[in-house]
Here is the input.
Amino acid sequence: YLSLDELEKTKHEAVILRNSVLENETTKELLRDKEEQIEELEVLVLEMKEQIGETESINRRQELEGSEIVKKFHAIAESHNKNVPRAATSEEWETLIDTIRGNHPVFYYFVQKQEFSDLKRKVCILSYLGFDSSLIAILTNANKGSISNARKSLAQELFHLNSARELNGHLREL
Here is the structure.
């Protein structure tokens, strides 16, 4: 038989255990809430990193498009309209490629790993920079038909597109 003291002691232990269980449940609930908050914050951080990456990419693209060498390529293409036609020199191409390597390494290495002819590589680079077929023809000293065929081929090989119309946009996404 239990004495009154033992009964009181057992009741007190039961209350302590019940409080401990309640504290554990509260702690578990708080822990679940904190884990959910952490997950939500991790998603926000990833979204912010993506936005920062997109902004940096846009800034690098603007920097590339505003670079002296790209301006020079535009000037060369425009000189054709002034009856001073000339293609870009090999030194100008090297400078352009070095600039792309520095500003857009992902695109640079993407192009380098492809088994393109020299013309196709140049068409790919100039398309990436937003030049149209007629300007690419001037800069590469090729006829417009060859450039159109190269662009169609690039669109098909790289992105499985039936038309070259969307090539520039797909290249810019790299």
About this structure: The chain is about 80% helix and 0% strand. Helices lie at 4-65, 68-79, 90-103, 105-113, 118-128, 133-140, 144-159, 167-172. The first helix runs from residue 4 to 65. The mean pLDDT is 86.
